[in-house]
Amino acid sequence: MPRTLFNAFSVLLLGIVITVPCEAQGTPQTTLKSKVNTATPGGAASAPKAAPQPGVPAAKAGQSVRITEEVRPAFIIDPIVNRLEARRGKVVNVEFGITCQGAPSVVEIRTVALSQDENGTIFPNERVPAPTDLELITPKTVELKPEGKFVIKARLRVPDTQSTFHTFGILVRDSGQLRAKSNEDQPDGPRVGIRFVTQYLLRCDVSVQGVRAENAGKLLIDSGELIEVDGVPLVRVYVENPTEGPIEFGLRAQVRATEEGEDKPTFPLGMPVRANLDEPEKYFGRILPGAKIRLESKLPKPIFPGQYYLEAALMGGNRVFTESGFPVAVSEGDFPAQGIGSVMAGSGLLASPSQIELSLQRGGNRAEVLMLQNDGATATEIEILPETLDGKPIDWVGVRPNKVTLAPGAARKVSVSLSASGDPNNHRYARLRVKSTPAGEAAEVSTPIVVALLGKSTTTATLTGGELVWDTEHGTPAFVIDVQNTGLRHMPVEGQLILGDESGRPIELRGGFGKWILPGATEHVRFNPPKSMKPGKYTARLRIDTGENSKPIEKRLEFNLDGAPADEVRAEATPAAQPQP
Fold first, then answer.
1. Average pLDDT over residues 365-374
2. If you average pLDDT over residues 282-309, what whole number do you get?
3. What predicted TM-score, i.e. pTM, was given to this entire model?
4. Which of 47, 413, 466, 526 has the highest Cβ tally under 10 A?
5. Is 242 in contact with 295 (CB distance < 8 Å)?
């Protein structure tokens, strides 16, 4: 008797297992776009061969193969989430409408327990009993006719607890649509097929009226950290719910100099799953019983090397219930993208941006704004003087006003513009020397801001790359490549590095972040990997675009990462995988 190789969660196709996700919340699970990037080697006796399609050349062993299959859901449901407001103990009815989209199907409907991922996503948990507060009124098995409609009806009793919100789940799943090729040439051989299952997780979310947010005080702040994401600092705090009920809460944080230091303005954190919502909903924290979730937010202001104190405050309504603090350290180069937008020009003095481009070309700007902000505790006198990159005064860049005094917390815009002096054809480069003098302190001098003046010349940048290496000797271990500009014009460098482990799961890293490489200069472009990298074999593939009509810089590195502690991480290139262009 023929054997059919399929199930609802995976597909066996040409000897390759393709996982089909079936647990995304709020979306039907029948659309599948599978991409198989490695063909099965010829001669594999265990894998049945597909018949060649007319006009389509057969794949060779080792050749990349792409398979795309699209199936629309067997039915759609509206709404996905029923949001209610009710008091404790009240009984309310909820409804969800189902519309069949194609062939007849049998649909199973049942209440289900819910669990929560670390990022805040709620998913069905079929391993524990469903709560009894939600009861289905309509049948649990329904046969849908083509274009037919059905209404799921349920009765919900709001639990008589102190929780300010509750969420309940209904799982709706059909028996699947089987797609299998005919097996006429080998009636007794294995039969390969795919079963597409449509599944919805429906939610009933209840905001409970007349209950104070006291339960937020029962939550625990597990840990807090400052991490780098896409080159900028991100505050991440983990919260646990040790109770037997769901809890709604808010979380705010601040970063200050020390634990006893002066308070700084706080900012809200939110669950990653709600990041695309509008305020204030994106910052509502909702945690299920026994869950541990993370809340995140980009740091609203730049942070520079030094020791700091991160404090997180759990809130219910407008009341603070729990505060926890964590020391954090920032090293040079930890947040490479941050230095493009803002730079420290003196003690407590921020200047934005750090790169200013003036242009005589069509569509270019002859003046730009430089923002100065005094985050220090005393008034600061500031003087700005343009000079060449080797420190000689110039007159073809003007700063107005070039002398200002900023009170603590004050900010001021100054204009940076070009003058008519000098050769209008050539590209020129300068820097701004910033002299800052806080009240009662010695003057500080820095040159953190680069100014480019683009002339009428059409010359371009020319970028070349060295070897891609795994660097463990200069700060946090990272992938590093030296990129040199041998052209006559600056160019912002943006790089992408795809890191894959033995399982083939890709991790995308960014580097450069738009930092200029000036003519004749070499920039060390770093790609910081996740701190959670596990020991094993890795492949890194790098690409840096070098401009229109120019070949990109492409490198490849294979290496073994050992199990040393984070501050002693070691790696060695595999013999057959030295960096290649």
1. 96
2. 94
3. 0.77
4. 526
5. no
